[in-house]
Amino acid sequence: MHFPSSASCVRGICICGDSSIATGSRDKTVRFWRVDETEKSRYTLSKTMVGHNSFVGPLAWIPANERFPEGGIVSGGMDTYVFVWDLSTAQAIQTMKGHQLQVTGVTLDDQGDILSSSIDCTVRRWRNGDTVESWPAHQAPIQAILKLPSGEVATGSTDTTVKLWRGSKCLHTFIGHTDTVRGLGVMPNVGILSASHDGSIRLWALSGEPLVEMVGHTSLVYCVAAHSSGVIASGSEDRYTKLWRDAACVQSIEHPGCVWDVKFLPNGDLVTACSDGVIRIWTTDADRMAGTPELDAFEAQLSFYKSNTKTVGGIKVSELPGLDALQQPGTKNGQTKVIREGDTGVAYSWNSADYKWDKIGEIVDGPDDLQGRKKLDGVAYDYVFDVDIEDGEPIRKLPYNRGEQWLLKEGLPLTYKEQIVQFILKNTGQANVALDYSFADPYTGANAYMPGQPSSFTSGPPEKYNFKYIPKRGMLYFDTAQFDGILRKIAEFNNAMASDEGQRLLSLNDAESMRLNAIVAILKDTSHYHTSAFADTDMNILIKMLTSWPVQMLFPVFDVVKMMIYHPHGANLFVNCLQSGNDILMDTFRRATAAPALAANQLTSIRAVVNAFRQTCFRTWLVHHRSEILDLFSECCSSSNKNIRLSYSTLILNYTVLLIDSKDEDGQQQVLSAAMEAIQLDVKSIAESAKSSKEAKIAEVGADIEHLIKSV
Length: 712
What we know:
The protein is built from 15 helices and 37 strands. It is an alpha+beta fold.
């Protein structure tokens, strides 16, 4: 069976008693589900608890007692808070503030105290709403905390270790994983299970001895759980829940998204939390199995997801250019392009003699290892595809470069990450958090630079170094747009609605279409932005499209909005609208980013927000909606689309500059958490690569970074 827990991805599951379930989600809620009394194979939503101001992850169950007649829930969030909820009222009776960064785990000990773990590297003990004990359990972010039946507590960390605690005393450190330990579970009567970004699940004796390693996932493993029957379940970024028995994988269950959490019900049914916002329950009991309609719907979800995420050689087919890209002539004979045709990629080669693109064939395979560049005839390329020319012909090798290889793996300008480094330095210094070089990004496990390295000793006063590019003070914006393409796409959508009886009233009439062309003409003329102005009725056209057009048709409208906001008078028109009580922007962004969000909507809407930082009149709005904006676009940090990740990083950069300038420490902490989730920092290798560049400016940036590392 399955039930939609929220419109956003579900991050945490808690089994409450024999059959009830609590869930935590990116929509900032905690939800409590009970078995439907009229149909035992279904769950119904019983309570929704609202209080966190960012996404909710870990949960813990408080069994019913005198204080909690119906039981209670403990929740931790990215907002750094720990909440205690009374299920009889669905209200928070305790709000506990103490952690400096995201809360990653909560549990209760045998005395009823609450224990919480955090990216700030500490474990806190709470009693009656107050901190009674806190200790630095690891020298890197803690990702999970687990209370054992024996009374001890285990923690898993980005430092790759698992630690066993009695109180604040460390009994054992379990060493074996090679990357972040993300999830922990109890193996009844045996020991501790750990799930890691290294792709493995390990079983440990309480003495610290490794007993079993289970390998089978193809990406980061986020969670692990076990049942008393001996079955182990794990969930991964690879979209599979795997079931293990005696260290062997006995079943793989595909999901239409990342599997964030898994838990077993006492009856042996398995509960999974997926990034598509749905909780699913899997059973071996024929009486509780879903019916044919539900199974067909699930298969359709899988099919839809895979068709929208299909790749050829690591490139998403949905992100390949369409046939219209062949209208653009090649730049040299033999230049190759990979084009989307239907649900596959087709290779073309530019024929200079005939001035046309020749079809080579369909791409049937790609490189096995996309991390390293491939060689063909001794030359390195980003990809070397296998291409099926035609039936009966041998498979040919096609070299292909997607784009210039910059210094940073994510394709970001170097100064982006350096701004984040400065931000982390400042904030961790203020928070007095002890971190070292074993730190890795809590969500990717990538090595990262953090403060704490002692400076090398030199005799005499050190020579002062003059930084040229660090720290970066200014913000970045998106100041260009493909206006002709935008107008064509809007016209295409408008014509489709005009020809549909049910949507005809939503379409632009001829006068509105002509005025939209006039708006674009003003936006094209960037040299006169300081004097040009829009008509009073122009906002009405944009508001009509933003409020009434179907969500799948919004992305070209967002592109117009992006440039309107970049224009001084256009920005003022929007702010006047916002100040009148009609926050058309946030309303539309919420609609456009609701799961499952279109990549095109994510890209264009986040760029519109980025451009708002250019205008002083938008600053109050940006600060007021900071938490919600970061939450709405938080999924962008893990997008497979490089342009979306770039845009999200620009948003983080601009918020960083804004909040440091305004000395907003609460805001800085939230942006820091978002940055740590999104940005992979490997500063030392960045500096080395940059210093070796033949471009003087890049080499100077590398020197700046190197001196920054040495000076802290």
